[in-house]
Amino acid sequence: MLTGAFIDAVTWHEGILRIEGHLRPKSSILDTRPEESIEVAIGDSKFRATWCVRNDRAARNGLWCGFAVDVPVRDWPHGSNGLAVLIGSAPPVTALKTRALFRNDRLGRCGSFAFDVRAAADKRVIIERRAGGAAALRSLHLRSDVRAVLRRQPLWRWRLIRLLTPWYGRRIWLLGERHDTAQDNGARLFQFIRRERRDLLAYYVVRRNSSGWTKMRPLGRVIATDSFRHKLLLVHATYLLNAFDMDVYGIPSSWKRHDYVEFIRPRAGTRRIFLQHGVIYRDLSAIVHRLSAGYDLVLSSAESERAWIADRLGFGDRVALTGLARHDTLRPDPEPRTIVFAPTWRSDLVVPSYREGAAPTLLPGFEDSDYFTFMAGFLNNRRLREALDALDYRIRILPHYELRSGFEAVVGATDRLTYLDQLTVEFQDELAKATIFVTDYSSTLFDAALLGIPVVAAHFDPVFEAAGKPQAFDLRDTGFGPVTSAVEDTVDAVIGYMERGAVREDIYDERVQSFFEFHDQQNCARIVSAIEQLE
Hints:
Radius of gyration: 25 Å
Distance between the termini: 42 Å
Number of strands: 26
Helix content: 25-40%
Strand content: 15-25%
Number of helices: 23
Largest sheet: 11 strands, mixed
Shape: globular
Structural class: alpha/beta
């Protein structure tokens, strides 16, 4: 029935050790709940498990490929034990590690027992239990460090440095986002901390001599990406906070991501806080689900979003309703008759920058794609061009980071159309200048709506839409502006706002007011409080 069994998380709470994982079926995916019983063997002991829904793995292994087992700590076998999964009367299948396991690993001391989780050379998951409380935990940690050094495991030198610098192990907050800019929730939260909570030992990481470095350096405690201090702070960090994928943008580029995840993060016990870079309304189970991403805390801006993340993405009470840090500093500063056009990107059209060792590169077929056809059709539309001239409007085009190299092929810059690059301008500043905002599926439409700007969302791509469903809410029913499906519809909506003086309808004002939980510019304070409550 199976080709593999994999462990994604081992955690403990109130005397119960919980193991969660997924199965890889041999021939067909597990779309329905299997009738067979499922058990997890720990050494010579067996424990009844339960079948679980796994939204994050539904497309690959089936919705019901998940399993979980709760084992009272007192019943866990002593010493080091491997795990195996048994289904019905079939032979046991050895449980192997996943990268997610080391993101989710929350072992340590549970009452009078200490636990350690590791992977053997053949990828088998090993859990070691020792009696003795805090002393046993210290012993397990020391043995783990010595083992890493003697076996020359990846990043073993940094394990040794961590061991030799215990004085550095204070409560460190390490914030960041992209390596080259400082424009999102990480930067905004760090600015708040340096202004209002200087009692926190917080550092911001950004590439030296980048625009983000120039901007953030005067605040103090700004660390250069890839520097020795960056690495030293990371092996001691209590909290790692990022608005993007922290396994990509939170660690030095010279470290292999999986090496950090498996060999440093569990030993340091770093808590991972996802600051987000927009409101989640599409299904991101495949990349943000708790058992894939392993975040200790995810932030949200609305109750409907919080409930969606808690349920669909599996985070439960690991979601905090705080608002986003960058929304504290949203202030309208409109330039008359300015349209900001900020479409998002497509992963099938570009090699993304977060792929290890890659730079954003357009894939063959970009100019033949529906994406290119829509963008070129909209920006080159005759009626839109005539309306821009007649009503004296201008469009400022702000492509997504990952596709900025491709947009110059869409249409050349003119007196009425200007291209902007987020490496040289701040998105939030440009958004504040807008009198009309146009996008396709970018969550920045929520920022524009919060600013009071008329929003037009061009949902022209049925394939992209289908990939993001089910959704937390449908923008066609509960959105903040017209949702269009073709070039001409989009042009009609934009020209309509231009002719009406860029005034948003009352119904959208009411929806914005009721959607967002907070309108008080106190999001950063709530975020810090939510993180402090993790302890």
